[in-house]
Amino acid sequence: MIKTLLSCFFASALCLLPAGGHSWGFAAHRLINRCAVFLLPPAMIGFYKRHIDWLTDHAVDPDKRRYAIADEGPRHFLDLDRYGPPPHRQLPRDWKAAVQAFGEDSLKRYGILPWWVDRMQWRLTKAFQEMDTRSILQLSAEIGHYLSDGHVPLHACSNHNGQFTQQQGIHAFWESRIPERHGSQYDFVIPKAHYLTNPADYCWKRLFESAAAADSVLRIEKELSQSLPADSRYAYEPRNGIVIRQYAARYTDAYHQRLGGMVERRMRQSIHTVASFWYTAWVDAGQPRLDTFTANPFTTADRADWDSLDLRWRRDALRGRSCDAP
Ligand SMILES: [Zn+2]
Predict the structure, then answer these.
(1) Who contacts 308 (Cβ-Cβ below 8 Å, separation ≥6)?
(2) What spacing in Å lies between the alpha carbon of 46 and ligand 1's midpoint?
(3) How far, in Å, is the centroid of ligand 1 from the Cα of 73?
(4) Cα(23)–Cα(152) distance, rounded to whole angstroms?
(5) Integer CA distances (angstroms), 298 to 73, 158, 313, in order
(6) 142 CA distance to ligand 1 middle (Å)
(7) How far apart are CA 197 and CA 60, in angstroms?
(8) 139 alpha carbon to ligand 1 midpoint, in Å?
């Protein structure tokens, strides 16, 4: 039943939403946050279900900010291949040590995703402790976005859009076009959230998985393109009511089949990771009773004002109440 409902949501969301040019596509990001709610324990699920539409809609806020705020971009990726072969031992997992080793400018050039997730998790835990409903929702929605980005192989690789291998467009092909055509068949019955004893380490591990899969993402598409006539790759097909040039449906299906379920596995893992981070923040905050929280924190404002929240966190940082993260 849940699977059918989610499939319907995915199919309809994908029809209605704009094409995502970065990170999973908007529809997939929204779906991941929405599905994560259903993996929460009884003490949390009521609160999150009450705000499920908000958490769904605001899953894409970080991408919307991306071109307005200079610091936003690096939070969505980490080019792990810039730091030598796995397991990238020369790259410190601790932010201050990483800055010391490489300098902040260099780190930001190649992405800061896991360190930023660390900071967001710290903020989310604080928000639970302070019973700050608006911040909890804003941070839950947004950490869901960054964590999901970390599950996309090409967010962990410098050849992020196939620009070095004449595969421009492969980024959105993998994360938007494939889920758009096949997501409604994916199995979204996923194990419940679990407590993470070391969330930062967990995030790094998911990112290493993504980096390890990036070669396959690129190689399999290259092999497919070489095995078929050049004119089979793209087609003019309708999308959201207009006809555009995009990866042809048959080409997309062939790529999806050759990937052997990779997109579905990464999407399922994203959902489980997001729910587990939310759950862990709540546990680490002392498991506050969520049924006593403000019923509707957005009656006077359409959404939490990011700038004012960010200013407050920066003030906290100056008072030494912050974590060691960017
Ligand atoms: Zn993103």
Answers:
(1) none
(2) 27
(3) 8
(4) 7
(5) 27, 39, 20
(6) 10
(7) 27
(8) 14
Q: Fold for 2-318, please state it.
A: P1 Nuclease (1.10.575)
Distance (Å) from CA 154 to ligand 1 centroid: 12
> In the beta sheet, which residues pair with residue 224?
none
Domain ranges of the chain: 2-318
Specify the pTM.
0.86
Per-residue pLDDT of the chain (326 residues; tens, 9 = 90+): 444 444 444 444 433 333 334 457 888 999 999 999 999 999 999 999 999 999 999 999 999 888 788 899 999 999 999 999 988 988 999 999 999 999 999 999 999 999 999 999 999 999 999 999 989 999 999 999 999 999 999 999 999 999 999 999 999 999 999 998 999 999 999 999 999 999 999 999 999 999 999 999 999 999 999 999 989 999 998 877 889 899 999 999 999 999 999 999 999 999 999 999 999 999 999 999 998 876 676 654 444 455 555 555 555 544 444 445 57
Residues 6 or more apart whose Cβ sits within 8 Å of residue 244: 236, 237, 238
- 292 CA to centre of ligand 1 in angstroms: 32
